[in-house]
Amino acid sequence: MAEYPTIRGVEAIPIEIRGEKEFAISEGQTRTHKSVIVSIVTEDPNIVGVAEIVCAPPGKPEEIQHEICGALKTIVESALIGNSAADTVSAQRVINEQIKGKVWTKGGLNVALNDLRARALGVSCMSMFGVHNKDTRVPVIGSVIGIMQPDKMAERAKELLDLGFSTLKIKVGRDVISDFERVRCVREAVGGSVNIRVDANDHYSPEEAIRLINKIEHFNIEHVEQPISRRDILGMSEVKKAVHVPLMTDDMVSTPFDAMNVIRLNAADRVKVKVTKHGFDGAVQIISMLAAAGKRAVIGHVFETGLAAVAEAHLAMLFPDVVGPHEIGSLEPLGCSDNLLLESPYRNQGYITIPEGFGLGVSINWERVEEYRVNLSY
């Protein structure tokens, strides 16, 4: 029987990457990306599980970094030390029991644990889950378009169209009249053959959402994402009854239990699934539940480094029937091309290519990570 190295520690590096331009959504605007790069190290320096833990709301990103790093040292490390790199199930159970809430922390850790296990077993993450595709290109949408003046959004849409993207995602969330103009200008700029996805980031009341969605229906919108508050699942169900454009929820679903509620209340046609939030294990459960209920999943998170993007791509390979192209992102909306990897996965326009190798297959540029490291004051 093969012997696998044991885990000897967890390392966390909080980072901040500052872009060259502002990106706006209904909840505000930013030009920085903050996250934590986690490494689960073993006795073998060649077998290390890595992942990016995204500092997603609610809460201030710098405070979330504090919480993540504290949890990694006080709870996660003690749960993992001494476990085999190839058998992390019991440790994952302890982590889930002791860390309450904090879905992004647990999701990122699950990615790192699966990366570690696959590396120890000498297979890729997607192979460990039973997929052995030779073509490892994953189709993705163009860079998400933040809230700007309608003409500026139309210009950006045309740029992405010229680059060969056939599906665009645009942000809205100001008021019904100006958001209608944003959608109209983008549709007129790109023509009728391009898919347009609209994301309101919780902005509207149910009544306002119904007004906007019915006004933009004739622009042939693929779906509208999270038009109302993530806390109002009954309101989402009412919106769905009143419109003909498919609805997608994102923030309403943090766990498989949440997905079951969306299914039970028929609150959406689609659910955004993010390996960075749900982990591989949770994402597989949620996508399988949705498929059994006749609903669809869309994979990806629009703001992430190449490390997280490759993890999302591995998940996408497991489910060829989910809605594509995938919303697997980068830091390009902030005007930043860095992806923290020695070899960029963005090799072909409109695709992410999964690197060859064990686990996630990534090789991290640790010098760049150190450049972005921030010192947290306690």
Question: Would you mind describing this structure in some detail?
Answer:
With 378 residues, the protein is α/β, with parallel strands linked by helices. The protein folds into two domains: 7-126 and 366-372, Enolase-like, N-terminal domain (Enolase-like, domain 1, 2-Layer Sandwich); 137-353, Enolase-like C-terminal domain (TIM Barrel, Alpha-Beta Barrel), CATH 3.20.20.120. 40% of the residues lie in helices and 19% in strands. It contains twelve helices and eleven strands. It has helices at residues 61-80, 89-98, 103-121, 125-128, 150-162, 176-190, 206-216, 233-242, 256-265, 275-292, 306-318, 366-372, and strands spanning 7-25, 28-42, 48-54, 137-139, 167-171, 195-199, 221-225, 247-249, 270-273, 296-299, 351-353. It has a six-stranded parallel β-sheet with strand order 5-6-7-8-9-10. Helix 3 packs across helix 10 (275-292). The longest helix is centred in the first third of the chain and has 20 residues, at 61-80. It is globular. The N and C termini lie far apart (46 Å). The mean pLDDT is 93.
